[in-house]
Specification:
- The chain has about 350 residues and is mainly alpha-helical.
- The chain is built from 14 helices and no strands.
- It is globular and about 60 Å long.
Length: about 350
């Protein structure tokens, strides 16, 4: 909105020419998101507390979590506001990639909101059934995939890190592939959201990493130099990624151990969906496995645990997702959180190194 209001005036006021630069708008989208989270955070926590919108704890979970019963949840609404508002303020709103990403972010957030609301209203930790949730997530992701497929400048090739000459054309198959990436990322972040600040930390790191990927993909000269896919218009997603970083940092202020508020599914599903969509648009889908390695390991630990129990009748981990395994081994919650953050930073650096490795 500010871009459309102020940039056209740059001929009369030369200082407004700065709105042309994605880097400038990404920085101020980050700051705007951070300020929104700081200003609205205390009010939202107080409101959620008064409405008794508190977290329900799984009865089969670690005993240390029982004291968290009743902590305000659905704090992901704060994250959504802190992402959407700065994005609308600072991006070029004629960019289709911005709208596709917002569609998934808000759509997945809406599914999470209904899920969280049912948990609170029914006072249980179940919410929407797995089938109901998955159907809605698949529909939203499929809509996004179709929008990208019919947008002619968008490429349906698949890029591989370390093998930059390998770019198979998926054609129509790109739609189900995009759905798999978006829904998979969303559910992986959702599974990671089990400890105070555990999910939002790696999300901030991944968002910052994809801010750079988006900027490079949108710059034809830099993309050609690095031999990565050039996606005209993808640079605007750097502004949205900046908003995600700011929103994440602002939310972490209140979510850090011991948490004053939990993000709930409204936050985790929307953040994961946003990351998956940005990965698809910037043609860095495979790299998401590296950047979001913590999310991948968390999801795999659940798959391995369930498969092992059904096939062999025994569990591999003391409890899944894997962060609960370390809890039951005696690790303190802050130690698990910080160590997972450290691993996320290392993985982000590895992912960035793929820009130069061929």
């Amino acid at each position: 909105m500010l871009y459309h209001l102020l940039y056209p005036l740059h001929e009369q006021f030369s200082v407004l020419y700065i709105f042309r630069y994605i880097t400038f708008r990404a920085i101020y989208a980050t700051i705007t998101a951070l300020m929104i989270a700081f200003i609205l955070g205390p009010w939202l926590i107080d409101k959620l507390s008064k409405l008794q919108i508190g977290q329900s704890i799984r009865k089969d979970g670690p005993q240390s979590h029982f004291k968290k019963e009743g902590t305000p949840t659905m704090g992901g609404t704060l994250i959504l506001l802190a992402i959407v508002l700065p994005t609308l303020l600072w991006t070029d709103l004629t960019n289709i990639y911005v709208w596709v990403t917002l569609l998934v972010t808000v759509g997945f957030g809406a599914v999470g909101f209904v899920d969280d609301y049912r948990k609170v209203k029914l006072r249980n930790s179940e919410g929407l059934s797995a089938r109901q949730k998955m159907v809605w997530l698949l529909l939203i992701a499929a809509t996004a995939g179709c929008m990208l497929y019919v947008y002619q400048p968008f490429q349906t090739t698949l890029a591989f890190p370390f093998f930059k000459g390998l770019r198979p054309e998926l054609g129509l198959l790109y739609i189900p592939f995009a759905v798999l990436v978006i829904v998979g990322a969303s559910n992986a972040v959702n599974l990671t959201d089990g400890l105070d600040g555990l999910a939002i930390g790696p999300t901030i790191i991944a968002s910052g990493t994809y801010l750079l990927f988006a900027y490079l993909a949108g710059n034809a000269r830099l993309a050609d130099y690095l031999q990565i896919s050039s996606v005209q218009g993808a640079g605007e997603l750097a502004v949205l990624c900046g908003a995600m970083v700011g929103a994440g940092l602002g939310f972490l202020w209140f979510n850090t151990y011991p948490a004053q508020v939990f993000m709930g599914d409204v936050g985790s599903l929307s953040l994961g969906g946003a990351l998956g969509t940005i990965a698809v648009i910037t043609k860095q889908e495979i790299v998401l496995v590296i950047v979001g390695g913590i999310f991948v390991v968390e999801a795999l630990s659940v798959i391995v645990q369930v498969s092992s129990f059904k096939l062999l009748g025994r569990r591999i981990f003391r409890m899944a997702p894997i962060h609960h395994h370390f809890e039951l081994k005696g690790w303190a919650e802050p130690k698990i959180i910080v160590r997972f953050w450290i691993i996320s930073i290392i993985l982000a650096l590895v992912a960035l190194s793929t820009l130069k490795l061929r």
